[in-house]
Amino acid sequence: KMTQQMRDLQLAQARKPPGPSSPNAAKRLYRNLSGKFRVNYTSFDEGSLAGRGEKEKLRKSYLFQSNAALFEAVELQDLDRVQELLKQYSPEELDLNTPNSEGLLPLDIAIMTNNAPIARALLQAGAKESPHFVSLESRSLHLSTLVREAEQRVNELTAQVVNEAPNADCSEKEKQLKAWEWRYRLYKRMKAGFEHARVPDAPTNVHLSVASSSSVQVTFWEPLSVNSAVVTKYKVEWSCSPTFSPPLGEAVIDKLKNLHFTIRGLVSGTAYYVQVSAYNMKGWGPPQASVPPFAIPSNWREYDGRAPRRRGQAEALDHLLGQVKTVHQHCVCHEPCKNQPQSRKHSVSKSLKHLFHPGSKFLKTLKRGLYLTAIFYKDDNILVTHEDQIPVVEIDDTYSCLLMQDFLWFTKVSCMWDEILWLRQCVTVSQSSCSCILQTRFKMLLAISQMQGLLGIQDLGQVFFEPVKDKQGNILIVTLKEVKTNQTFESVRWVPICKLQTSRKSVSSPEEPTALDTLLISVQDKLAYHQRSSHALSPGLYLGYLKLCSAVDQIRVLVPERLPNILCHVKIRSNPNISREEWEWLQKMASAEEPIPVEPEAETSQNHLFQELQVAIKELMTLVNIPLQEAKDFRLYSQEVLDFGGQVSFLLLLPPSDDVCTAPGQNNPYTPRSGFLTLPLQIFELGEER
After folding, report:
1. How far is 12 from 2, CA to CA, in rounded Å?
2. Within a domain: residue 627?
3. Which residue, of 186, 268, 393, 552, is most buried by count of CB atoms within 10 Å of its CB?
4. pTM for the full model?
């Protein structure tokens, strides 16, 4: 009966070309693949192919051969070749989960020969076990049939080789005999691997945590035992009873790249027990209960019913801005712009007018004054004018000392690039009688409009956290923007940054470089800052360190250079949620006059958080160069958990009250190591919002 099933299966797979019949044939195929098929099929000269149908036929031929090569690589236990093929082709192109003529998949061969590295590589690529093996008996019968038929074929070929006289046919029979002898040994090894295998041990390090008010997350590791067969899937079960009677649900995990699972749709305030078991070709192993044994879905806000800090704030600000615009829409200053369509066509025509206006052009040199420069970059190229200059426009030629308040006001305006025309018209009303500060800010808005018109684009990007100055009294406000699409600009062109730096002729001395020369020398640093400031943290709970220092006109905050939009930090864990029980414990710790003892062996979420915090605090103190004994006077900010988008949250570690902000002239004995900088607090807040 099994033989008949195998024949039917062979007929069903008749279109699939068989793999090489011997190890030598496999090696020849590998050489062919290395020399011919390693490149993508579209790289061949398409002119030599007679039509699209022939190209598709050739493509399928390459893919069929790559599938055969994958089977042979698994059979020969060639891990490097398996990884190369998995990297070069998609699972669909390899027919990764289509059985061969023997009813086997690559994963079947790997696990039955107990080749764990190849099996793991296949599993991570999405490989499955053969659907024909519905039971242990069917797998055993299938293997026995393969061994018996291979042995029978070896006997037949042996008799033919012995009885025939030496000739060309006999030589071919000898090759077939060697191939079948090799396949016979392979099937025997697979059969022995199956017979000696046992069910897997329980998974290890099964940890349960609260993910939200309606979900819990379980993470786990592979079983420790290396003597059983390769694990191909896991089962997560949950229940409200410690005996799992009745069970509430289960989930099978067959994508083994990340061993974790989030159980959703749970009831807040209810305890849930979780266990995990592993599966291999011999069946399911024993379950392993989680640590802690149960978890209660909750969130720290449930402790006192606190609403999110920023709930509705963005909508309220948009509404307020809309009200302000409504009040000003009938203003005399807005009459000239009522009939101007806000379109790309208008922007282009406006910019063309600027090109012919004698006062609206990019500057080549700087005089004593305040200027705006916009740096647009794409890969290693930067946008320059036709004179190979970074785009610069004048703000005020009589302004010699940039006040920090004016600069910070400019950074806030950068959040409203599309509203510059409206802001400028609002300021125009009282310009004739306005203060010096208002006149300067009006000139800033005018320079922004001029830059937007000359470039033909509204969004000038992010403001660099400090202006570039020189001893001649020039001040450059710098904006940075990365261009990721094929965007069209006017009056400018792209050049490599290195070419611009080497070809520019400096008009200043190395001892006293101009602001433009300083900008060009440090442009890579500024681009690196801009790129790093847009990076996001991976999901998780972090411990942040808040350290401020004050100057005459500003407060600055300590941040890492590698991520300047975030406080100095270390990661506590991958789960960003703080449960109600954990937050209640933190409140007790914060209000206690004496340290609260923690039982080291207690399997609770609070004890686990305590251990995680101990590790994180030590790591953070080392990072910012503060002796660990000084940390005994530090405290956790216990008013709230800082939440950023639901996927990232922060607990803050604060120095003693007197040391949170270092005053001018105050000695700070613990200077962080290299890799940190201080940003104006307002700049940091804007970067955080972005």
Report:
1. 15
2. yes
3. 393
4. 0.76
- Is residue 16 classed exposed, middle or buried when 0-12, 13-18 and 19+ CB atoms within 10 A define those classes? middle
Domain membership flag for residue 343: no
Question: What pLDDT, in 10s, does the model give residues 80-115?
Answer: 999 999 999 988 888 898 888 888 999 999 999 989
Q: Are residues 554 and 671 in the same domain?
A: yes
Distance (Å, rounded) from C-alpha 237 to C-alpha 249? Answer: 6
Instruction: Tell whether 525 is covered by a domain.
Output: yes
Extended beta strands in 638-675, E state: 642-644, 648-654, 661-662
Spatial separation of the C-alpha atoms in residues 241 and 52, rounded to whole Å: 63
Cα 374 from chain centroid (whole Å): 29
Summarize pLDDT for 548-560 with one digit per residue, the tens: 988 777 889 999 9
At 470, list the tokens: 């020189």
* Lookup: tokens for 134: 């519905």
pLDDT in tens, 325-365: 777 766 655 554 444 444 444 444 444 444 444 445 888 88
- Type of residue at 412: K
Q: Tally the domains of the chain.
A: 4
184 and 263 both lie in a single domain: no
Phi, psi values for residue 563, rounded to 5°: -150, 75
Residue 628 shares a structural domain with residue 512: no
Residues spanned by the domain of 675: 540-591+604-689
Asked if residue 522 and residue 381 are part of one domain, the reply reads yes
Cβ of 285: how many Cβ atoms within 10 Å?
A: 22
